[in-house]
Amino acid sequence: MRRLPAFTAATALTAAALVLTACTDASQQTADGASTDEASAEASFDPSTVEADEEIAAMLPKEIADKGTLSVGSDTAYAPAEFIDADGKTPVGFDIDTVSAVAAVLGLEADVQSAAFDGIIPAIGSKYDLGISAFTITDERTAEANMISYAVAGSQFGVAAGNPDDFDPESLCGTTIGVQTSTIQDDELTEATTTCEEDGEEAIDIVRYESQADVTTNLVGGKVQAMYADSPITAYAVEQTSGEVETAGEIRDAAPYGIVVAQDDEELTEAVQAAVQKLIDDGTLEQIFAGWGSEDVVVDEAELNPAE
């Protein structure tokens, strides 16, 4: 099914709910190789404050409970959802806090392992117990794995300051757009460029990068006219480049993020879903996202495989 309407209508998300402040020590380089001057502050949430829930923990598969950890795959190059802190080794971000809190409810520790984005879901149930990486829940993904909703985000374009190429988010054909490979935005641009060609217009030049940091760097460096990413990520790029990037157009395509669990692991799925719901109900998940400037994105219900 085409998603062309996603590029022609603004989503009814409140932009203020997704505007992020610079809440951590992350480093990102501009095209000339210089590091941006970033705010030095810590997110307010401490996962160690979350107490285990014995009833929910009892839902775990025995092998997971005995192991004492949850192995979690995450593409740690998508600030502020998940990225590597200034020490060069510690994963941080709102997804990292979320999965750490889920593990704590279950009486476990989260072992977050950096992984290529498109390799995480295929490895769920074998290499990883869970996946969390700002995964938008789609029918294609829930055909491969279970996904438990925890937050909602839209998509937004970003351009270099002043929009030097006069990029128009409502007229994409013939433009050059940077995107992280295998994201929902990559899928949407692929469908949009097919429509351009079917209509006899010039295709979109989609420039794919393995990391969002590379997308942002090449936007600032003038190698692409625009970037397309989840709205919190685009807003964060604006903050972290000290204004070298600005948003373009409205936030669009509101959709839930999901924690990924193997389809055949019913016990772990139910335990994680219950843990997420507890974190929603007691306000912990809102606290986590508030620490990253986005408390209003938390869902009311941790749904399993909600339809698109």
From TrEMBL:
Keywords: Signal. Transmembrane segments: none annotated. The keyword DNA repair does not apply. This is Polar amino acid transport system substrate-binding protein. It comes from the Bacteria. Residues 69-296 form the Solute-binding protein family 3/N-terminal domain. Residues 1-22 form the signal peptide. SUPFAM superfamilies: Periplasmic binding protein-like II (SSF53850).
